[in-house]
Amino acid sequence: MFGAKTRHIADLESRVQQLADERDDARTAAAAHLGAATRTAERATHLSERLELSRDSVATTAADVAHAKSRLAWALRTCACYRVQNAALARQVAHLQARLDAAVGLDAPNIALGASWQTRRTDKPSAVKP
Prior knowledge:
The protein is rod-shaped, with a radius of gyration of 50 Å. It has helices at about 1-105, 110-115. It is mostly helical.
């Protein structure tokens, strides 16, 4: 009986040692898993922040595009107005120039006939200058 107790105590001690080793292995694994979980959480936080920044930049870019489109539409409308005004001013200038020509006598038929007098000159040299 005395030997059985000793064997039983030795078995219990080996079982305690085995359980202590398993406990230490479990603690090591838990620490490794905790470290991995912490790194994963940090990475997820970093990626989440980057995603929010990219969404903000996309929203900003979309807002910028919308603003640029409205400015371009305004510029095109303004340009069309300026072109209409320019055409009206060109017609007005042509009318005023015609009135000025009539006032100073530049629209007389004799002046219109003399417009090409250089080509009919008799004293004009016919040789081409080099």
